[in-house]
């Protein structure tokens, strides 16, 4: 209910004694449900599930099991280990044998280490204007940098994503000489990558991503800071954004959009965050 109220999205929830069974319950509860499997009911729940529901059983493994008459978890439970090993190999057979019995030693980790932060923009109409595209890349870089700073991260690698009118999609990346959370530095790297792209047709989407994240200040400081001025500027911008909201201060080359000038029709993507 809280997810729906705060985001407008639905989600499915599975609850069980192990991660694997909880995941299976969540899948069965889609698109907007809740399924609780009590620990005492685990075996009964599992027996009726198709073998493809087990973690790691893809089309090829599922076919190998089906050729031996193994279609459900109940069939797995009734199969001798040598049969499973001939179908799946020793390592996967051992894992499937345990999962079919509700045995999953993996613990639940509530902390995640973020490995990348990105924002991208899909345009309503394909764009060929280089100035417009570069302006958009700079805006996306500003957003990426702001998220890095707000979470206390720095990035060692900057990458861009470009999707052309025919939906061909490419990515390009560059490893920085030292990690940064400075939007100006991120934007410079993104534009340098973009300049090297062979733009044979109009562009439908652009994106900027910061990768190989680490905690800010975790690397040794140099004798001087080439980005000192920009850090002060962006620190002031962050303060204004926190106090007055996003968009109260922006780059001059973005003002024409806010004032009704040549607009940039787009489908806004609020950004993405990958975790591991």
- Total strand segments: 8
Based on the structure given, which CATH architecture of the largest domain is correct?
2-Layer Sandwich
What's the end-to-end separation, in Å? 26 Å
* Poorly predicted runs: 258-263, 268-276
Whole-number average pLDDT?
84
Helical/strand content category = alpha+beta
What is the number of helical segments per DSSP (H or I, 4+ residues)? 11
Sheet bearing the most strands, described?
6 strands, antiparallel
Superfamily (CATH H level) name of the largest domain: DNA polymerase, Y-family, little finger domain
Q: Which band does the percent of strand residues land in? A: 15-25%
Q: Which CATH class of the largest domain is shown?
A: Alpha Beta
User: Under CATH, the topology of the largest domain is which?
Assistant: Dna Ligase, domain 1
Order of helices and strands: HEHEHHHHHEHEEHEHHEE
What is the overall shape?
elongated
C-alpha Rg (nearest Å): 25 Å
Q: Helix amount, in percent? A: 40-55%
Protein described:
It is a single chain. By secondary structure, the protein is an alpha+beta fold. It folds into 2 domains: 2-100, DNA polymerase, domain 1 (Orthogonal Bundle), CATH 1.10.150.20; 114-275, 2-Layer Sandwich (Dna Ligase, domain 1), CATH 3.30.1490. 40% of the residues lie in helices and 23% in strands. It is built from 11 helices and 8 strands. The protein has helices at residues 2-7, 19-29, 42-47, 59-66, 73-77, 81-88, 90-100, 130-151, 183-195, 228-244, 255-258, and strands at 13-15, 34-36, 114-127, 153-164, 169-180, 203-215, 266-268, 272-275. The strands form 2 sheets. Strands 3, 4, 5, 6, 7 and 8 form a 6-stranded antiparallel sheet that branches. The chain has a two-stranded parallel sheet with strand order 1-2. Strand 1, helix 2 and strand 2 form a beta-alpha-beta unit. Helix 6 crosses helix 7 and helix 8 packs antiparallel against helix 9 (183-195). The longest helix has 22 residues, at 130-151. The protein is elongated and about 70 Å long. It starts with a helix and ends with a strand.
